Amino acid sequence: MAPIANPLIDSIKIPGCPRPVSLTTIIRLQGDGNYTRLHLQTHTRPLLVAKSLKWFEELLPGFVRVHKSDLINPSFVQMLDYHNAKTLEVRLPDKQIIKVSRRRIDPVLIKLKHHAIHMS
């Protein structure tokens, strides 16, 4: 069972980590079956957590699901490459390029624009 989403949280307790992880350090969450890899700004290697990506998606409503296996922090989006109506890529720090699934292009663009409006 996933915890109740709280938009006011600034950190989350990750199972297996001694201290809560600040949301401002999470760049990307990558699903791998029943596990999730957390790509953090403060770590060179991702942390492997025994929770599904769906669990994190419900916990972090401000993050954007761009693909079946990728959930990104919109604060780290550096650029959008919109090649055509069927191809969108998101560039993150460290030259990470994440392809947005075709059926999620419109919702991702809307959520990223909404995030940009609230940040300015």
How do the strands and helices of this protein lay out in sequence?
Layout: E1 11-12, E2 21-22, E3 26-32, E4 35-40, E5 47-49, H1 53-59, E6 64-67, E7 70-72, E8 79-84, E9 87-92, E10 96-100, H2 105-119
Antiparallel strand pairs: 1-2, 3-4, 3-7, 4-5, 6-7, 8-9, 9-10
Q: How much of the sequence is in beta strands?
A: 35-45%
Q: Helix coverage percent of residues?
A: 10-25%
The radius of gyration is 14 Å
CATH topology assignment = OB fold (Dihydrolipoamide Acetyltransferase, E2P)
How many strand segments? 10
Features:
120 residues; five-stranded antiparallel beta sheet; 2 helices; disordered N terminus
What would you note in describing this structure?
- This protein has 120 residues and is an alpha+beta fold.
- It is built from 2 helices and 10 strands.
- The chain has a 5-stranded antiparallel beta sheet. A 3-stranded antiparallel beta sheet has the order 8-9-10, with no helix packed on it.
- The radius of gyration is 14 Å and the shape is globular.
- The model is unreliable at 1-5 (pLDDT under 50).
